[in-house]
Write a structure and sequence with these properties.
- With 204 residues, the protein is mainly alpha-helical.
- It has helices spanning 22-44, 55-60, 67-89, 100-110, 113-126, 172-175, 179-186, 192-203, and strands spanning 131-138, 141-148, 159-165.
- It has 2 domains: 22-89, Fe,Mn superoxide dismutase (SOD) domain (Helix Hairpins, Orthogonal Bundle), CATH 1.10.287.990; 100-202, Iron/manganese superoxide dismutase, C-terminal domain (minor pseudopilin epsh fold, 3-Layer(bab) Sandwich).
- It binds manganese (III) ion.
- Manganese (III) ion binds at residues 28, 32, 83, 165, 167, 169-170.
Length: 204
């Protein structure tokens, strides 16, 4: 029995059209995310003692994971965790702006939603090569950052509430080299209710 399984998408592959196309969703979830799950399960076969903890615990314990498998656990474990979150922060009928506490904290920490967006876009565009842009909560404040490859703020003990995959596989079929267009379109599918829920959990 393998410890990890590919979490099903909560919506159809075509549900995010025209912003994210169905074929990209099909390959991204069904092939890329799936491969991270399979590779993580395979590498953990070699270290059964690390099969029992949660994925979060595993990603927070990387320095203690045997060196021979550490990079594979880091890349594939991060790939599993990051994508599982990514599918939940986006969805059909998304977009707009967050209201309530989260909207107020964005205004407080960034001087407004437009400035927040600008700073997040800069993190997404500034990530050279493959990686992710994030909003995390640190000491009650919102922080924007990016990570390389499949590195995840979970490994740094942080609480992410929003994430954007900027690997080319996330956008190349529809947007080719135009990452900026993909990032711009992605805001139309952000599920702010779910992001607000994560913010609530991170600050309680
Ligand atoms: Mn991806």
């Amino acid at each position: 029995m393998y410890p990890y399984a590919l979490p099903p998408l909560a919506y159809d592959h075509a549900a995010l059209e025209p912003h994210i196309d169905a074929l990209t969703m099909q390959i991204h979830h069904g092939k890329h995310h799936s491969a991270y799950v399979n590779n993580l399960n395979a590498v953990l076969e070699k270290t059964p003692e690390w099969q029992k903890c949660s994925l979060e615990e595993l990603l927070q314990s990387l320095p203690k994971v045997p060196e021979a498998v550490r990079t594979a656990v880091r890349n594939n474990g991060g790939g599993v965790w990051n994508h599982s979150m990514f599918w939940k922060v986006i969805g059909p009928n998304g977009g707009g702006q967050p209201k309530g506490d989260l909207g107020a904290v964005i205004a407080r920490d960034f001087g407004g939603f437009d400035k927040f967006k600008e700073q997040f876009n800069a993190a997404a565009m500034g990530r050279f090569g493959s990686g992710w842009a994030w909003v995390t909560v640190e000491g009650g404040k919102l922080v924007i950052q990016s990570t390389a490859n499949q590195d995840t703020p979970i490994s740094e003990g942080k609480s992410p509430i929003l994430t954007l995959d900027v690997w080319e596989h996330a956008y190349y079929l529809k947007y080719q080299n135009r990452r900026v267009d993909y990032v711009g379109a992605w805001w139309n599918v952000v599920k702010w209710d779910y992001v607000a829920e994560l913010f609530g959990k991170a600050t309680k």
